[in-house]
Amino acid sequence: MDKDSWGSSGDVKYHLGASEKVTIDGHDVRLCVLANPSHLETVNGVLMGNIRAVRDHFKDEDGKKTMGVLIHGDAALAGQGICFEGLSMEKLNHFKISGLIHVVANNQIGFTTTPAEARTGLYCTDVAKSIMAPIIHVNADEPELVDQAMRLAVEYRLKFKSDVFVDVIGYRRYGHNEQDQPAFTQPMMYQKINEHRTIYSIYADRLVEEGVITKDEKKKMWDEELNRFRQSYNESLSTNFDIKKWTHTPFHRVVDLSQLGNIKNTGIDPRELK
């Protein structure tokens, strides 16, 4: 795909997904971000099916080798029926995947709609109560608390093999997308947001006040990260787009019988699927 076609493609660029093997604490981990078609919560069922397929292929009966993470928006979680459907199916024998970690990017607005105009319940995570899943509410302005909440969620999922929700309550500093000017539809909210300090500023200044880092170290870390982002951006300008790097499973391999792994008897010969 040439640069001109890439620039005019209809999908949001960061919805294409990716797959990469990373090493964490000496262990090789296959990290996959599934392609998201942009339609709210549509990827939920794709993720659940993907995890189940991987589990069947590697005979991971107890879910110790596979773990799924779903990132929801607050408005979509409360408003899209597929969220309830997925939770209802997850414990069924032929669909269970030993629980998901649900992370809610709760910016307290759905495009231009406030929570009071979008749902009846107090919390966007009320749907989780339908399966008695634990819900951890945490302030996005507190990075260390968010870290603790996520660690607790991972430990819960590993121990109990069940869904767990982390509701990260923050705000959306800019618009819904590049074309949205939120001050037009939510002027009072965005007056407060514009006056509110960024998470980085709050946390970095706290570390300086507590003597964890110095002002010089704070500036050095900021400059190093900014340069790293700029370098990555500049490298991306000269990188050719390779579709193979953006697809988790190339479509022509979907019917490859070697991928079916531990095949269950469905009454149909798998060779007929070709």
Approximate shape: globular
- How do the strands line up in the largest sheet? 3-4-6-5
- Report Rg: 22 Å
Binned strand content: 5-15%
How many H/I helical runs? Answer: 9
What oligomeric assembly is this protein in? single chain
Straight-line N-to-C gap: 29 Å
**What's the total count of β strands?**
6
Strand count, sense and barrel status of the largest sheet are: 4 strands, parallel
> Uncertain runs with pLDDT below 50, 5 residues or more?
6-11
The H-and-E topology, N to C, reads as HEEHEHHEHEHEHHH
Q: Mean pLDDT, rounded to whole units? A: 86
Task: Please bin the fraction of helical residues.
Answer: 25-40%
| Class from helix and strand fractions | alpha/beta
Give a concise summary.
The protein is α/β, with parallel strands linked by helices and 274 residues long. It has helices at residues 3-7, 43-58, 74-79, 81-89, 115-118, 143-160, 187-195, 199-209, 215-237, and strands spanning 18-24, 27-33, 68-73, 100-106, 135-139, 164-169.
What does this structure look like?
The protein starts with a helix and ends in a 37-residue tail after the last helix. The chain has 274 residues and is of the alpha/beta class. The model is unreliable at 6-11 (pLDDT under 50). The chain contains 9 helices and 6 strands; from the N terminus they run H-E-E-H-E-H-H-E-H-E-H-E-H-H-H. The relative contact order is 0.10. Strand 1 and strand 2 (27-33) form a beta hairpin. The strands form 2 sheets. It has a 4-stranded parallel beta sheet. Strands 1-2 form a two-stranded antiparallel ribbon. It has helices spanning 3-7, 43-58, 74-79, 81-89, 115-118, 143-160, 187-195, 199-209, 215-237; strands at 18-24, 27-33, 68-73, 100-106, 135-139, 164-169.
